[in-house]
Amino acid sequence: MSEETEVHGVCAPGFERVRRVFENNFARGLEVGAAVTVFAGDERVVELWGGWADRRAERPWRRDTPCFAFSCTKAVTAAAALRVAERGGHDLSAPVASWWPGYDAHGKGKTTGEHLLSHQAGLPAFDTPVSAEEAADPAAMADLLAAQAPAWEPGTGHGYHAFTYGWLAGEIVRRLDGRTVGAYTADEIAGPLGLDLWVGAPDGVAARAARLTRKAGSGPSRSADIADGPSDDPIARMARAARDPESLYSRSFRNPDMAPVRGGFNDRGVMAAGWPAAGLTTTATGLAGFYRDLLAGRIVSPDTLRAAVAPRVEGADAVLHLTSSFGLGFMRPSLVFAVPRAAQAGAFGHTGSGGSIGLADLDHGISIGYVMNGLGAELSGGMRSMRLVKAVYDSLR
Fold this sequence. Notes:
Elements: E1 7-11, H1 16-27, E2 33-40, E3 43-51, E4 67-68, H2 73-88, H3 113-117, H4 138-146, H5 164-177, H6 181-193, E5 197-199, H7 203-208, H8 223-227, H9 234-243, H10 248-253, H11 268-273, E6 280-282, H12 284-295, H13 302-309, E7 313-316, E8 323-326, E9 347-351, E10 357-361, E11 366-372, H14 383-395
Antiparallel strand pairs: 1-3, 2-3, 2-11, 4-6, 5-6, 7-8, 9-10, 10-11
Helix pairs in contact: 1-14, 2-5, 2-6, 4-5
GO molecular function: hydrolase activity
Organism: Nocardiopsis suaedae
Domain Beta-lactamase-related: 22-378
């Protein structure tokens, strides 16, 4: 937008640099509308918002404006699965086929629940085309994946399951509890804790949600130049994979096919479907509050959380070609979850395509939520969120 964009909200003494970075993102024209919230323990130390909820500047962004947050969903789905397992005494290290009959087809018999949660299942992409309408049926999506052969032996490698993650990890909730991830989250997490957070947006929420646009923050495309880089450059390999329609990368991110959907992820039907890997609509405060409540033991026990955020896999990602690191559903510091040096030990969370991020830190006791509707070109996180996260950590010194 412009340097005249007014930023609203509160910022506790000592956290003024977060406001400066947030305002600067607007001044540099990187935002349409956005919000950021930070908790230190249970204390809200930052809650800022500004800009517009639509590209035409007809609706101002308000304190309670919800926004679609793409893969930030995965952390919520993981937390729901961990809570179901903890409350029900289910062993996630046991074979999936012990509670999901038929999943052991095509050599998947040794797959565990932990493999589903840590991107080790070997099913990062559907083998058959899936429409957005079909993707609204979690049982049908799960059946497709159960009948499919893995791209690698489960547990022997990892690769980012962009969409399939939700219908794999989500079955932990659906089969062991009986509710979908969206219903379970509403009943057991967001509702009781008072969080403005929905995996599947009701009509009233979708109606006032920010409209996503790529007008701001996307910048000029340099994918062709990047793809022509050295063969040993992982970013160049990822760019080449993005250009190859048969690569795991392309098949993972482009199926379900959103091309025929008018409005893309702004479509009310897609927002309502609550895809459990990319179906979260939330406010910045709702997202930060989710991580605050995770740290406080209100969603799962502290022991369960610590076990879940311990890195299960790290290294070259079979889909992204970059170095990634995952616990049970949560990203850990890596090239795809870049955090300041001070956050390397304790930070965990998940980014969303275009720039959003949810993050918490076990060592520092902070939680952060940042959402925006001006989508950047970033696959995961981005410079706007990185600068805000750094400003938070700088404020702790």
